[in-house]
Amino acid sequence: MRSLLRSGHLVALLVVLVTAVPPGASAEPVSAATARLASLVGDVRDADGFVYDLRDDTGRTMDTAQIIRTQDGTYLAVYHSTLADGRFHSAVATSTDLRTWTRRHDFGAGTSQPTLAADGAGGYVAGGYLLAYEKDPDNHIAVRGYADLDALLAGKPAHAYDAPRTLSRCAEGTPDITSVHDGTVELTGHYRAQCDTDRQLRATLRDFTTWHAEPDQRLDRALEAWGTGGNIGDRSSLELGGSELVLIEGQRWREDFGSWRTYAYDPATGRADRLTLRTHGASQAFANPSATLLTDPDGHPALLVSVFVPGEGAAPGEAGQLVYWREL
C-alpha cells in the first residue's frame, strides 16, 4: 500500500506510560511506526472530527464499531448493541459523514464483535464483502461471504461457515479479518485459555470448508510484558507508512473494566508500546480498538480510530463508542 504519511519529521511521540514501565517493557518506542501511530491516535482533542457515544438512527449504541469506506464514498460500519432480549445483536449501517448512521440490517441475536472486509481483489467473493463475528451460544467465530454491497445490506450471504472451537472448549471470538486471497480468509481472534483468560489466536478459512487456528503466543507475550494479567482481546491490523501494525486491547486486571488499555504492537519486533489516549474529559479506560485508513468526509486521507469507552473510568458524556479521525 502506498504510504499516506506526510513527509518530514515525525510528530512528537506522546508519552506512552501512565506509571513506571513494568519489567520486560521499554519506555522507548518499539519502532518509528508505533511512534507514528501513537502520535496520530493519542489525543482526541487534536482530531479533525470525533463523535462520542456513537449511535445509529434508531438510537442503538454502535458498540465495537469497525468502519470502512466503499468505492463510491459511502461509509460502512459493523457493530453490536445489547437489546431488550438481553443479547448482543450485530448490525451494519451506512453514513456519508461518519457522524450520522442509518442501520440497514440486523444479523440476529447472539452475534457480536463484527468485522468487515471488502474483497475487491477477488480473493473469494470478487467485488463482495466478508463479514465475521462471534456467535453464541457456544461462543465461536462465524464467517459470511456476500456477493456485493446490496447482498450485505440485505443480510443475504452467498457463503457461510461456523468455525469449530479447537483451542478452547469455552469460547473463541472477537475476529478481525486481516486478508482475503486465493480462496483463503485470514483472521485473528481470541480464545479462552483454560476456560479462564482470553488470549490471542491466528486462523485461516479455506474455501469456506477448512478451518485451522493456532495460538499467537508472541503477541500475548508482548502485552504480558506490560503487566497485562487480565484478558487480551480485540485487535485491528493496519499498514501505516509501509509497516504492518496491530492496535490491540489489554486488561490489567480480570473483571476490572476500568483497567482496559490500548497498545500498538509491531510484528516485526514482537514488542508493543502502551498508548495513552487523551479525551476531552480525560476518560481512563479504552477497549475494542480498531483503526482504518480512509478518505474523510472533507476528501482528505485520514486515519480513523474507533474505541469503546467503558462506563468504569469514563468522563461524563464520554462512555460508549468513540470514533475520531486525523488527517494525514
Structural write-up:
- This protein has 328 residues and is mainly β.
- It has three helices and 20 strands.
- It has helices at residues 32-41, 149-154, 217-224; strands spanning 49-51, 63-69, 75-82, 88-95, 102-109, 111-119, 128-135, 140-146, 159-162, 172-181, 184-193, 197-206, 210-215, 232-240, 243-251, 260-266, 271-275, 287-295, 301-309, 320-327.
- The protein has a four-stranded antiparallel β-sheet, with no helix packed on it. The protein has a four-stranded antiparallel β-sheet with strand order 2-3-4-5.
- The longest helix has 10 residues, at 32-41.
- The radius of gyration is 18 Å and the shape is globular.
- The two termini are 15 Å apart.
- Residues 1-20 have low confidence and may be disordered.
Radius of gyration: 18 Å
Care to count the β-strands? Answer: 20
Q: Number of helix segments?
A: 3
* Biggest pleated sheet: 4 strands, antiparallel
What is the ordering of alpha helices and beta strands? HEEEEEEEEHEEEEEHEEEEEEE
Measured as a percent range, the helix fraction is under 10%
Strand order of the largest sheet: 1-20-19-18
Mean pLDDT: 91
What structural class do helix, strand and pairing data support?
A: mainly beta
Ranges where pLDDT stays below 50 over 5 or more residues in a row are 1-20
Tell the overall outline: globular
Report the end-to-end length measured between terminal Cα atoms. 15 Å
Strand content: over 45%
